[in-house]
Each structure stands twice: as structure tokens, then as C-alpha cells.
Amino acid sequence: MKKEECFYLGKIVKKFSFKGELLAKLDSDDPEIYEELDSVFIEHRGTLIPYFIEHAQLHKSDLLRLKLEDVNKEAEADALLKADLYLPLSMLPKLEGNKFYYHEIAGFKVIDKRLGDIGIINNVNDQTAQPLFVIIKGEKEILLPINDDIIKKVDRKNQVIEVNAPEGLIELYL
Q1: Residue 137, beta-bridge partner list
Q2: Among the four given CATH numbers 2.40.30.60, 2.40.160.40, 3.40.50.11290, 3.40.630.30, the one describing domain 3-91
Q3: Could you read off the pLDDT of 86-127 as tens digits, one per residue?
């Protein structure tokens, strides 16, 4: 499976026992939905390798304790420390209303309440303190904070996000 066909689930952060068990920090608001996983992809040297899960359970509410098939010793677990975990995009829980995954809104049109069509979302910059829509309008790039107060409606069917940007913010870019 290719990385583009998957979503980042989390990272293996430490060993749990001498029998090869691992603890993974999940990038999820609802980690309990991942307790019933049958398998997971683990990134190793840029390649996603499938691992079957013998047992998974939440540990201290935000970590997932994993027992993987064929990982039975500390040395085998050591080799997986700090590795990233992935699952196929098809396993992402469906979101409704104004909630969305960053990857799903690329290509959506952004309509501002005052200014109308301000461009197309190219991607999301989540490397900043607050995630930003990166919107392309002609040759210009517009950065708009992703904020519940700004986002008024997400229309998945028509691929449109309606916003009410603070006055003057978008004009800075045009």
C-alpha cells in the first residue's frame, strides 16, 4: 500500500514489556475506536509494512498497547520504536457538519461572506501554531486560519467551504 492511500494513525513511543509489546501514541480524538484493529501499517525506511495485531487495548487513555504478530522479544520491539503507524484512508471515521480531514478538502472552493469566491484550497499548513488553509487565487496565495468562528459551512457535495473572514485579512493578499 502507498503512503498516499493511508492516513497517519500515530507513533510507537515505547516498549511495554519484555515480550515485545509496544505503546503507540495515537493522533486521534477517539483512540478507543482503534482497539479492535486487525492490522496496521508500520513505516520502515520509507516503506509501509503490514503487521497483524494479536491484541490491542487502551493504556492510560491516550496510548494504545499493541501486541503484534511475530514481535515477541525486546530486540524485535526495539527495531520498531519511533516508527509511524498508518491505516488505509477507507478506515477513517466519517465526519459530518463542519468537521473535516485536511486531506479531504484539497480542491474545495472557498466562498467568503463579503468577498465571494476567494479561491481553491491547495492544502493545509499545519506546521504553524494554528492550522491554515492555503488558498490559491490566480497567481496569489491566501493564508486563512482554520477556526470555528471563521468557517460557517462545509458543503462536501458541492466541494465548497463558506467562511466569514475577519475584515481586511483576505485583502492583505490581493
Answers
A1: 140
A2: 2.40.30.60
A3: 999 999 888 888 988 888 899 999 999 999 999 999 999 988
Residue 11: phi and psi, rounded to 5, are: -140, 140
Q: Which three cell numbers stand for residue 118?
A: 476567494
The grid coordinates listed for 102 are 485536511
pLDDT number for residue 12: 96
What would the pLDDT profile of 126-146 be if each residue is shown by its tens digit? 888 999 999 999 999 999 999
The per-residue DSSP string of 124-164 comes to: EE-SSSS-EEEEEETTEEEEEE--TTTEEEEETTTTEEEE-
Copy the grid coordinates of residue 126.
499545519
